[in-house]
Design a protein that fits this description.
Layout lengths: L25 H15 L4 H15 L10 H22 L10
Length: about 100
């Protein structure tokens, strides 16, 4: 007799199987971070590098301990390299296109 205030429409699943879906999961953040890091080597490295670092950090679960997904570590490392290269390029130490012609 589900019609007397005990319907199943409020809680269709048990509490153990539901989770918060307020944002992307860790695997998705890791993939987004890797894509941003690789794209940052070609365009807008000063913006996409820190985005890749943040995505990698969030994909790691905001901690250095425990198991780390490979995509999160790759995003973090490539984002750091990308940011460092962009800062060096912006400081004028290396001009773009040196040695091309």
């Amino acid at each position: 007799m589900a019609s007397f205030g005990h319907g199943t429409r409020r809680h269709p699943r048990s509490r153990g199987r539901t989770w918060s879906r307020t944002g992307p999961d860790r695997a998705t953040l890791g993939i987004i971070g890797v894509i941003c890091a690789v794209a940052g080597f070609f365009v807008l490295g000063i913006i996409l590098g820190p985005v890749a670092i943040v995505c990698g950090w969030l994909a790691m679960g905001r901690t250095w301990s425990g198991s780390r997904p490979a995509t999160a570590v790759v995003a973090l490392v490539l984002g750091a390299i990308d940011t460092l290269l962009a800062i060096i390029w912006l400081s004028g130490a290396v001009t773009p296109g040196v040695g091309m012609f």
